[in-house]
Amino acid sequence: MTDTPPDVSIKSARKLFLSGASIVWIIPLLALFVALGVAWNSFNARGPQIFVEFEKGSGIKAGETELRFRDVTVGRVEEVGFSAGLGKVVATIRVDKDVAQFIDNSAAFWIIQPEVSAQGITGLSTVLSGVYIEGSWNEEIGDFEDRFVGADSAPLIRAGQTGLQIAFRTVGNGHLTDDAPILYRGIEVGRLGKAQIAPRGNFAIVEALIYDDHRDLVNTSTRFWDSSGFRLSIGPSGAEVDFESIATLIGGGVTFDTFVSGGDRVQDGTVFEIFPTKEEARSAVFNASAVDPLKLSVIFDENVSGLAVGAPVELSGLTIGEVESLSGIVDYNQFGDSRVRLNVTLSLQPARLGLPGAVSATSALAFLQDRVSNGLRARLASASLLTGGLKVELVTVADAPDAQLVAVDDALPVMPTTKNETSDAAATVEGVFSRINNLPIEELLNSAIGLMNSAQMLIGSDEIQQTPRDVRTLINEVTGLVSSDSVRNIPVSLNATLSRVETLVATLEQEQMAKRLMEAVDAVSGAADAFSTSTEGVPELIAEMQTVAAKAGEIELQQLVDEMTAVTRSADAVIGTPDAIALPGSLKNALDELNYTLQELREGGAVENVNQTLASARNAADNIAVSAKDLPQIVDRLSALFDQASRTIEGYNQGDQISRTAQNTLRDIQKAADALASLARTIERNPNSLLLGR
Amino acid sequence: MGTQTCARCGHKMVSRDFGSLQRVWAFWIMGLMCYVPANTYPMLQTRTLFQSDESTIVGGAVELAQHGAFGIAFIILLASVAIPLAKFWAIAFLAVSVKSRRATANHSRQIMYEVVEYIGRWSMIDIFVVAILSSLVQLNTLASINPGPASMFFALSVIFTMLSAQAFDSRMIWDEQAKDEDPS
User: Fold this and answer.
1) Which stretches does DSSP call E strand in chain B?
2) Mind telling me how many Å the CA of B95 is from chain A's nearest CA?
3) Domains of chain B: which residue ranges?
C-alpha cells in the first residue's frame, strides 16, 4: 500500500505587523516620547502673562529683566512694547505659575533702579545687574488679573505689610518731603509717602506708615512736627542751633511726641496735623484737648499793667494754661475797702498737669486744692524784661498764711495770691543811672587838673631848662683839653714808641726765634717724658688754672655795663631839652681840634713809622711761617710722647717699685714745675728776657 | 546549516544584512530629531560682568558676518549647517536608491557613501570648539563661556548620523546591478 501523503497545503504565513521591524526603532520612539513629554511639561508649567504699563522703559529688556517678589525672581519680561498710540510702555511679563494665582487687584509693580537721595543709596545692586521690576501683592489668592499700571516709585505701604496707616495734613508752607522718615527719639519708626495737594487745594496731605513695632507710640494726643532743616534761636539761655540729624537736615523728616497723657488708640486713616516747630506742636495740645479746661479765678491786690489775655500760666516753669479774661473788681464787703482789684480768670489744661488716672477738671481741681493747702499761691511775674509783659505763676510759698481753694456757690474757685515778683525794667535802668550819678566824677577831675598843673610847673622850672647849657659848657671844656699842648704832643711820643717796637722786632729776627722755639719744645718734651711717669701733680695744676679763670670771671664787667647804661640814660635826658640845639656848634669846634691834631700826627712822621713797623712785622711773620714747617715734627714728637705716657700708665699698676719710682719722678716733676713757675714769674717781670734770650 | 564565522576576526558572516535599511532609517530619524533643537537652542552662553549672551549656531554665524568676519561665518555655516544637511540628504538618497531603480551609476553612489562616512566624524569639530572655549574661558564672575543645550543635541545628531551611515550596507548598492545582469 502505497499511500501518498496527502498534499500539504502550504499557505504563506500571515506576516505579523512589525515582525520584520528591527529593535533599533525603539530608540527614535523613545526619543519622540521624551521630547513630547518635555514639551508638554514645559508648556504646562508655563505661567500666565501679565501686562504692566509704565511711563517709560527705564532699562527694561525683553528676556532679561526679572520680576521679583520679596527679592525672589518670580517672572521674566518677555516683551517690551508700547500701548496703543505709544502712550505708555507695556512690559509683558511671564509669571511663575505658582505665584500667578496671588496676583490680583492688590498687586503693584514698580521698577527698581539705582537711586541716590538724602536718605541714602538704594538699588545699588542694579548698577551691575540692570534694573528689575519689583512686584507686591498680598498673600491671599484672588481673581487673576493681567493688566496693571506700574507705579513710579515703590509704594509706601506694600500689600501684606502691616503698620499704622495714618495721614498728615499741613496748611502752612510745610516742608513735607517724599519718603522722609518719621523719627522718634532719633529712631526711624515710620515713613512718609508722597505728598499731595488735597482736592480742594487748601492743604497738603501725605500718607504715612508707622511700623507695626512702634504703633503704640502714637495715640490721639500725639503731636507731629517738622524736624527738617535747623532752627536757630537766641533766648535767655543763649544761642541754640537745633537739628535732628544730617539726614533730616537735608532730606526732611517728621518727628513726634506725646506731651500729655490720656490719648486713645489711633485707628488706621487718622489724619494728623504737622506743625512747623516743636513749640507750636506742644502748645497745640491745648487747642485740641478733649478734656474741659479747669477755670480758676485769681484776685490780685495790685493792679499791675502788663497782663494780657492769653498770657501763660506756669507751674514750676511748665505752661499749664492761659489767662482767659481780665477784669476789675470792687467789692467792699469782701475786701474791706473800695479799691479796684484785678480779677483774672485762668483756664488750666488738666492734661498738662500729667496726673495719673482719668484726666478731668475735677481731678485737677482736687490736686490743686491739695497743693494750695500746702502753700501753693498765684503771683504775677515778668514774662519778658523788654516788653514788660506779665504771666501768672503758681509757686509754693513756704510760710504762707492758711488759705483754701474753694468754690463759693457757683462762682469760680478763687486761688489765693502772694507777693508779686515783677521786675520792672524801667526801675532797674533808673537804678543804674542813679548809681552812675552818685559817682564822685568832679572830684576826680579836680585831682587830675591839679596833677597836670604840678607837672607843667616842674617842666617849666629854670633848673630843668638850665641843664643843656651845662652840657655845652662841658663840651667846651673838652675842646679846651683837646687843644692843649700836652695832647698835641701825643703823636711825637707815639712815634718814638713805634721806633722802639721796630727795633725790637728787628732784634727778634736776628735771634732766630724758630730755632730757639724748637729747642724749647725739645726741653719741654724732655720734661714731659719725666712727667709721663706720673699723674699726681696734674689735678693741682688744674685747680690753679681754675682759680685763674675764676679771677678773670670776677672782674666787675656787670658793674661797668651798669655804669655805662646810667651814663647813656643821663645823656638821653639832656638831649631832650630845647637848649640841646646849641650843642652842634661846640661839637664842630671839638672836631676841628681833632682834625688839627691828626694833621699834626701825619706831619710828625708817625704814619711812616707805622708802615715800617708793619713791614718788619711781615718779615717776622714770614720767619714764623718757616718755623711752622717744623710743626709736624713737633706733632710727631708729641704723639710719640703720648704713646709713651699711655704705656707708662698701663704699667703703673705693675708693682710697688714702679710706684715708688713714680713718686720720686713726681717729686722731680714738682721741682721742675716750680722751676717753670719761677721762670714764668721772671718772664712776667721782664718779658724782653725771653725774646732777647737773656 | 550553522552560522558561519570569520576565521580571522570571529565576526558573524552574513550574506546580506536585511535589517540594515531599517537601522539606517531609525538612526537617520533620530539624527534629524536632534538636529532641530541643535539649531533652535543656544549653542554658547557667554557671560561677562555686565551681560549674558546666548547665541544659536546660525545666529552666531550671522553675528560674526555682521562684524565682518565673513570667513569664519562661512566656515561655521559650512561645518554646522551645510555638511550635516548634505549628510542627511546623502544618506536618505542612498537608502532610497537601493530600493528603487535609479539612473545614477552604482560607482558614484559608492563614492558618495564613502565620502559620507569619512566626513561624518569631522562634524564633531563644532563640539570640539565649544568644549575648548568653555574650558578656557572660566574667569568666575568676570567672564565665562558655557556650552548651551544645543551643543548636546548637535553632538547627538552627529553621532546618530554617523551610526546611520555605518548601518548602511554598501553591498546593497550592487545588488541591483546583480539583479539586472542575472534575470534568469
Assistant:
1) 44-48, 52-55, 143-147
2) 16
3) 21-45+55-181
